[in-house]
UniProtKB/TrEMBL annotation:
Source organism, top-level taxon: Bacteria
InterPro entries: GAF, GAF-like_dom_sf
Domain spans labelled GAF: 27-141
Residues spanning the membrane: none
Lineage summary: Bacteria, Bacillati, Actinomycetota, Actinomycetes, Geodermatophilales
Organism for this UniProt entry: Geodermatophilus aquaeductus
Protein name in the entry: GAF domain-containing protein
């Protein structure tokens, strides 16, 4: 069977454990990690330069790696998106180019290599596929041609599922992925800061990121605590009002 044939079979097989159209990205991520010589995969969308929406990850470590990039505001997927090209990074490259992301990656995951691929087709400019490796695997184990072929199939499967949207729906069912719902709390928390502290969205996100990084938390979890009023805005305002 061909690589893409193996991918399709793996996607169908994962539906037994992960039923429901909103879980398609997670099924795809697991299938990608199964058919390529990598240890994890994640799929995400960018609907603004600073707003990244995770859709599905193949494992807890892959999900953590995505949240670390979003929390620190740096990482290979963000750079690949900005540069509009595939980006392959071994441990030395990650350490030197994205040090804050690297520190979190080493502290919280066994991942030491990344391959970040912008998606094309209907997702050109907004979609991304991240691949992760752990020792003894490394990024040299993967054929970039195979990775690009798989990323094209992922984009096509998401596109086809998106075109099956029922009347009255705002978009593809896979946009309701659990990871995306969790990330939406960040936008809500930013709105709290907009109105409560009188800061714009850019400064609100920067303030949330600074607090999350200082506390060793991921930004999604900090946002949940802000939205549920476990962290009062007055606490966040302390750093905002402090002189630099």
């Amino acid at each position: 069977m061909t690589l893409l044939g193996d991918l399709r079979v793996a996607v169908v097989a994962s539906a037994l454990e992960l039923p429901g159209p909103e879980l398609l990205p997670e099924r795809l991520a697991r299938a990608v990690a199964r058919v390529l010589p990598v240890d994890g995969a994640g799929i995400s969308l960018f609907f603004a330069d600073s707003r990244r929406l995770p859709l599905g990850a193949s494992s807890p470590a892959a999900a953590i790696a995505e949240r670390l990039q979003f929390t620190t505001g740096e990482g290979p997927c963000l750079s690949a998106h900005a540069e509009e090209r595939p980006l392959v990074a071994d441990e030395a490259t990650i350490r030197s180019r994205w040090p804050a992301f690297y520190d979190g990656l080493v502290a919280h995951t066994p991942i030491r290599g990344t391959i970040s691929l912008p998606l094309h087709d209907d997702l050109r400019g907004i979609g991304a596929l991240d691949l992760y490796t752990m020792p003894p695997n490394d990024v040299t184990s993967l054929s970039l041609t195979d990775a690009l072929s798989v990323s094209a199939e992922v984009a096509a499967l998401l596109r086809d599922a998106g075109r099956e949207t029922r009347p009255g729906e705002d978009g593809p069912a896979w946009l309701d992925a659990p990871a995306a719902e969790r990330r939406s709390l960040v936008w809500q928390a930013m709105g709290f800061l907009n109105s409560g502290l009188g800061v714009n969205s850019t400064d609100a996100l920067a303030l949330l990121r600074a607090h999350a990084y200082a506390d060793g938390a991921d930004l999604d979890e900090l946002a949940r605590r802000v939205v549920e009023r476990e962290i009062p805005l007055e606490h966040l305002a302390l750093d905002h009002d402090s002189p630099t």
